[in-house]
Amino acid sequence: MTRKQKRLAVIFGGLAFLGAATGLTFVALGQKASYFYMPGDLVSADVQPGQRIRLGGIVEKGSILRGQDATVTFAVTDTAETVKVTYKGILPDLFREEQGVITEGSFGPDGGFVADSVLAKHDENYMPREVADSLKEKGLWQHNE
Amino acid sequence: MVEIGHFALVLALALGLVQMTVPLIGARLRDERMMAVAGPVTLAGFVFTALSFAILTMAYARSDFSLQNVWENSHSLKPMLYKITGVWGNHEGSMLLWVFILTFFGALVAIFGRNLPTTLRATVLAVQGSVGVAFFLFILITSNPFTRLSPAPVEGRDLNPILQDIGLAIHPPLLYLGYVGFSVSFAFSVAALIEGRIDAAWARWVRPWTLVAWVFLTGGIAMGSYWAYYELGWGGFWFWDPVENASFMPWLAGTALLHSAIVMEKRSALKIWTLLLAILTFSLSLLGTFLVRSGVLTSVHAFAADPSRGVFILCILMLFIGGSLALFALRASSLTQGGLFQPISREGALVLNNLFLTTATATVFIGTLYPLLVEALSGDKISVGPPFFNLTFIPLMVPLLVLVPFGPLLAWKRGDALAAAQRLMFAFAAALAAVLVTAFLIDGSSAIAALGVGLAIWLMIGALTDLAVKAGLGNVEPSVAWRRFIGLPRSVFGTALAHLGLGLTVLGLVGAICFGTESVLTMKPEQITELSGKRVRFDNVVPVQGPNYNDERAHFSLLGPAGEVRREIWSSRRFYPVRQMNTTEAGIATLGFSQLYISIGETTESGLVVRLWWKPFVTLIWGGGLVMMAGGTLSLLDRRLRVGAPARRSRKGAVKPAVEAA
Fold first, then answer.
1. Is residue B344 within 8 angstroms of chain A, CB to CB?
2. pTM score, two decimals?
3. Which residues form a coiled coil (chain B) (predicted)?
């Protein structure tokens, strides 16, 4: 190979590499970027059972039910729609009724949401950002300091 | 008394203004006296910043609640260690630490850089000074830690309990030493662009400074990850949280810089690329500071959200990144490129390394900033989570890791890939054996797990192969090989050790992710549960009163085969009355390299909610980080660097050629 050919090969190799990386990124963004949903969004969104998402909203009053062996069920609501969530594990310290929460998991075949992690407010001033913003949009935000 | 700290900070700003202008003008006019100002002014700026920092620390130690900053973040009952670490456990204090470390690095350059060409030294210090000025202004205008309260409150509001941990004493200082350490290579790059030339002294200087910063950043990230692991009680060590990514991006870019700087130092090739990478690395550090400090992200790290601060840091960010890149665009073409090489060579391997690492940095960058961009443009809220990074970052990293052992075995300029592959036969056989053994042990249930273990072994044995080959093991008498081994340059050991550490980290990740088990259950006292063959008994819960918290401490026993107690484990939920906050203090038993991790929830009718994890080899994740740090440090101690830097002869332009490492 001449020097020119070599240089071309290197340049095209580099470009092909970057192209592959860009492709991967776009595929990943297209599939996985919309990751956070409020119950109301689920009506129009196409979320398959088994697809991993974050579901955020407010814990509905009176919906927390403790089952056997560390299983908890509660309802996450944005006042318009409500989704029932089952979770097995340790609830965060500030998990309360009528407080913001983000759960992560997927829908089971029966339509119930099975979460494997639950995030709540970190301290009195912190609410999961997505939830806080969505609530502000819907006019449900109460700042309790 | 406290006002002295404030005045010292203002003085440091004034000194910084002198530092960024006078030497720079001096360097243009070739005025020796004006350039000579740089050193003393830099040192004085450091002394005044240190004084300011010391006074804030004193105020914390004495619980002086007349300072708003102390009142907001401290409490008289807090243990002394946390009073002191609390200095940087808040926005204002952590920015002061940032600028303190910046002036510290400036002072180091001023002290150790006496042998640099005078114009280069003056310009470097001036650039360093300009970064300092921006951050002094930021602190004094938007985040002054010395704001007084009148009347002074009697008691403080305490530090966020999550931060009341030894981790706060180690993680932020290490991380900042890393972040800010990259400012030195940045300043050198900008200085080279201003001067319009890159000489041998420049090349020799950038690598060790990058290495110093990289060692600290590695430590900072590893420590932060371990801290999150044991403090948050979720058993996770990496969440792809934007704040973590903010520190990970400069690390990736810095690792690339480290490798391209080798090519530049040894072969004087890739000069322009190295320069650009140095600028990008520090830009990513600044971006990290912006992301964490501006409040655009909500996390444990964002102490307060104040829009004026965000805008200010954004301005700093645009000024430095935009300015340096514009300078690069203008001047880069005037720099000379040198050193030709074949694609298959050490240089070629390092270029490939750079290609992978910078692309990986770019994917993390996109994943971190895309949601912010989308929100700013369309108002839609999306969140990019681990699935994105698993799909982009990991496919980029795996081929890089596979190629790592080849790099050091290729010769400079023109390498022989086949010969390198032959030398790696043993490593390949070991890796293959590891894959088969693992697949057999887990009944072939997870191909990824088996391949992951193989990859880790490949990296580790590959790193050792490099040492063996360089010592000539197998080709010469063992005694000769041993003498050669002892005589290898320290940087060769450094490389091998760093790559070995990488393998250890991979092994830890594969172990914890693929072979970890967990269980959640409610337990009554004396109940025994089993997880991966480990029998754990829940004994009881005892209330314990701490200095500024109440503990609800659960006692567990890890039982041996005969039912005897092998290890006692305490896991607790801690309540901090001042902040009305709970924290989880996980109970961890380390068995070999593996850990049993227990965290507890509330007590329900059916018993105490307990979550147990068995995490095989998990400690290797951070242990590997420590080994990488050791490798970096060893490489810093290399004779070549010690001889090279202080060589007074280099001033006359007669640069001693660097001792070739193998």
1. no
2. 0.89
3. none
